[in-house]
Amino acid sequence: MPPPPAAPAEMAPTAAIAMPRIHPPLERPIRVGALVGAILAGGEGRRLGPGVEKPFRHLSGTPLIEHAMARLRPQVAGLVISTHGDAARFSRLGVPVVSDSVAADADGRRPGPLAGVLAAMEWARQAHPFSPWLLTVPVDVPFLPLDLTAYLAGHMHVPEADILSVRYRGRVHHAIAVWSTELLPALRKAVMEEGARSIERFAAGHNTSVFDWPRRRGDPFLNINTPADWARAEAIARAEAAGASRGAS
Question: Record-annotated residues binding GTP (predicted)?
C-alpha cells in the first residue's frame, strides 16, 4: 500500500486534538486512494429499544448512516453500504448498496457484521479490482476520525497483515478494520459453509495486526449500542454544536 499523505499539523498523533465536529463544514479529510470503504449497516439496534432501524435513527437531527457517510466517503476511493434485507431503503443516499445473502436464524436474528464484510468485499473485488484493501466501519460510530485512512494506511507495511484493526485505550474495535481482499475465498467459505458470524474469531485465524490509535480528547470510536451510549453521543453532539456556534459568532 502506498504511504499516506502527510497529515496536517493539527492531526499529529502527539498533539492534544479536539474531536472533529460532526456538523458541516467538516474539517479536512485525508484521502488514501488504495482503500475502498464499506459502512456495515445491517444491525437492527435491538438494544436501543423499539423504533426506527439503527442506520436511520437521528443523532443531532441527522441519521447515523449519513454521519458515517460524511466521515468516511471523503477518505476512500469508493464507498459501499453493506446491509441485511432490502437494499432499496438506502437508495436515496446515492451510493452503492449491497445486501448480505445469509438468512436470519429461526429467532429472526440477523447474521451479523462478518456477513456484511463478505458482501462488501465481493462488491469491492468487482467494482474496484485494482484496490486490494477494504476498510470497514460500523454505522454506529458517528465521530469517526477524518484522518483514519491516513493512519491505517501508514501502518500497513511489509510483511503486511491480512487484517488491521483499531485499538483505542485498550479496546479493540474489530469492525473498524482494513481487510486484504485476498481473503475473499476464505471469508466466503467461513460465512457460507461454516456459519462463521464473529469478526474477532475469523480474524484470529489469519495474519492480524492492531493499530493503537493515538489518544485524543473524548472517544472518536464511540460505538452506540445502548440508550446510555445514545445519551452520551447526543451530549457530545450538543457540545460540538455549541462550540461551532460560538466559533461562528
Answer: 40-42, 54, 100, 140
